[in-house]
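User: structure tokens for this one?
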Amino acid sequence: MSDVCTSRALTTPGATVLENREIARGTFLLRVDAPEIARRILPGQFVMVRGPGEGSDDPLLGRPFALYEVRRDASGEPVSLDVVYLVIGRGTAALSRRRPGDRVDVWGPLGNGFGPSPGPGEAVFVAGGIGQTPFLALGREWLGQASHGDQPRETGTPVSAATLLYGVRSADLLAGVDDMRRAGIAVEIATDDGSAGRPGFVTNLLEERLRSGEKPAKVVACGPPPMLAAVARLAREHDVPCDVSLENHMACGFGACFSCVAPIVQDDGRPDLRRVCVEGPVFPADRVDWSKPSH
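Assistant:
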């Protein structure tokens, strides 16, 4: 895990919405004017977003969103950040109605980011549902195209290639594929209904690669727990390093409410509950106790 934590988190009350558009069925890209957060945030970290005027006195109404990408001006200075979200309840439905010029409260960066690039081999990202969102920024950084954050840190050797294995229920839910490909990240798709790419589970794509003898430098996964558990099992069977980004429900984002705990194996071999928002969301796959439910 990275040693980046929430101690440098910032609050940007009333950040201006620059863009908020639907990029797939029920999936939106939100761009906010939050330059200080954009300057500090790392791939794998997240922000909490809340709309002023809609129960904004209630901290439980914040929603966690992983960094999609940092936007920069002509000089390369970070000026805004993008997140991608799926409308699944009242909070995200309200957020989807925000228009450019509206305001939202944003606080972050929160959580721990991904570790240094594992190059010079290939990185394989595995995403299910909305789990593709952390991999644009991560892929660009690991390919050596961009750097994030304002503090010195180990970045590792760039990977020689990056591939996203992306699974969704149907083709109309695919979001950000063109962004990934423009960044040089190859994309292979699996859909439950066969409407795009290969029919079936995205983990089948990973299994075929590993069984064919491919040896990625690292596998990184984000998505529903059953998918993550399957990815962790495949990585363990083929002796491939693997990290996972957990999507546990979060209410506060900074460790106070304990709503997002996950069973994480400690150095003594026993699992203990750890807060995903503070000690994650990124964990080595072999440190998650997949036999126990997460919150």
